Amino acid sequence: MKPVVRKESYAFKITDSRGFSFLNMLLSLGVFSLIVTSLFPLISFFYTSMEGYRDISNLEWEFFSEQAILELKGAESPVISGETLTFANRLGQKVSYQRYGTYIRRQVNQTGNEIVLQKVDKAEIQVIKNRIIIHVISKVGKSRTLSIRSVNNEAG
What we know:
The protein is α+β, with helices and mostly antiparallel strands. Helices cover 30% and strands 36% of the residues. It contains 2 helices and 8 strands. Strand 3 and strand 4 form a beta hairpin.
């Protein structure tokens, strides 16, 4: 009976134990440089997408605008002090919109803390005749303005 000899196959067998050759070093340097150069477009893409993330989204602005329009159309006796707009709503509750850090918050009867808009750098609120104008500048510097005609506005 003959002994069974297993033939091992290798894809690449290194018979030399002296380490990497110059050709191996160039090949690994080429692969490394290919990986590094492909990272630059990815980094720039993520940077620009993060810049958009710091801005007020269009959907968020639409929600804020719709809520403000519904509520401020019936505002009675709006008063502005600094960056705070205070008025009485149709139910007789004292409602205030004010900038709070990087947010615009809404409070009813000076309670609660409802964030209605975020990523705000500056907010300016004006009452001119029968209009309430809210001018917002986002953290990126994009400017947005909302003008609402108040039906019950008694301020001049």
